Amino acid sequence: xxxxxxxxxxxxxxxxxxxxxxxxxxxxxxxxxxxxxxxxxxxxxxxxxxxxxxxxxxxxxxxxxxxxxxxxxxxxxxxxxxxxxxxxxxxxxxxxxxxxxxxxxxxxxxxxxxxxxxxxxxxxxxxxxxxxxxxxxxxxxxxxxxxxxxxxxxxxxxxxxxxxxxxxxxxxxxxxxxxxxxxxxxxxxxxxxxxxxxxxxxxxxxxxxxxxxxxxxxxxxxxxxxxxxxxxxxxxxxxxxxxxxxxxxxxxxxxxxxxxxxxxxxxxxxxxxxxxxxxxxxxxxxxxxxxxxxxxxxxxxxxxxxxxxxxxxxxxxxxxxxxxxxxxxxxxxxxxxxxxxxxxx
Length: 345
Ligand SMILES: NC(=O)c1ccc[n+]([C@@H]2O[C@H](COP(=O)([O-])OP(=O)(O)OC[C@H]3O[C@@H](n4cnc5c(N)ncnc54)[C@H](O)[C@@H]3O)[C@@H](O)[C@H]2O)c1
Known about the structure:
Blueprint: E1 4-9, H1 15-24, E2 28-34, H2 38-48, E3 52-54, H3 57-60, E4 68-71, H4 78-87, E5 91-95, H5 102-114, E6 119-122, H6 129-139, E7 146-154, H7 159-164, H8 178-193, E8 196-204, E9 215-222, E10 227-233, E11 242-249, E12 252-257, E13 263-269, H9 278-281, H10 293-307, H11 315-334, E14 338-339
Parallel strand pairs: 1-2, 1-4, 2-3, 4-5, 5-6, 7-10
Antiparallel strand pairs: 7-11, 8-9, 8-14, 9-10, 11-12, 12-13
Bound molecules: nicotinamide-adenine-dinucleotide.
């Protein structure tokens, strides 16, 4: 398998998960890094042993031998950077959300398809062992008829978090706790429950001084007839409390919790197939809400590029949670339930 050369754009809070995942993988090499703040790019270059640093990402795209670009910049820049990378013939790993509008998401997907490059979206929690185990249980039909589900993020982001990087919490570059934080759990909710029929939401900006919401709730109806609830907040005092996914069916109940869906809280099925010790194997201790999924995502992507396969979380998969959140925002603006077209999702 060929070793791939990576370049990171945006050397901020999340980029280290990419740099470390690249460093850990023997089939990956961090070739170059880019940040408009030069000291950040230099720090990453030195810390992770990259060959070069840039302050203009267009110049980085011309670096000889670059294969893959990891986009870790403010969300409102993802689509244009991904499209430029695709046009330069580079494969793209983009942080969530892949874009802030469906048009931008589609333009990015199309640019990657037209230029024959791979696109993966960082919903790294899909790789969490408890989440993978839950997905297998669903695929095996162990729940029987699904009745309802909920996705809850009760996290703490102080005003400082927003003030450190002025793009955070703005409509143009970010969105609120639904678009930034809860998108991971909304992605898992729809991955488990399937396409959405309709959404109704409320949001509020109750504690933080930001444009977008710091609390959001929504109710959903899925196309399979089951119901869903989303609760999201970055206002929980005094620290991150939980990211929990609850799935309920005729013959099964699963609650995944911990601070970032890394623990099995409840696992009950009528078929009782689990062996002794099976639950413990799927628990995961994490030191922060990012977990370990970036390593698995990198591994998947390298296999995909080398063997011309489809990424586990490709552009079309990455778009689904975005579509739900934009529908919640539309519901809040109009005061109405938003129905999904049959062809959407
Ligand atoms: N997958 C996850 O769990 C996870 C976690 C945190 C953040 N994220 C996502 O990662 C992205 C970045 O978030 P963050 O918290 O690391 O942000 P950040 O503000 O800490 O870092 C962003 C970096 O991008 C740089 N930048 C801005 N414009 C640029 C440009 N034109 N060219 C090059 N560099 C530029 C900034 O200088 C900054 O260093 C966001 O989209 C966010 O939603 C994902």
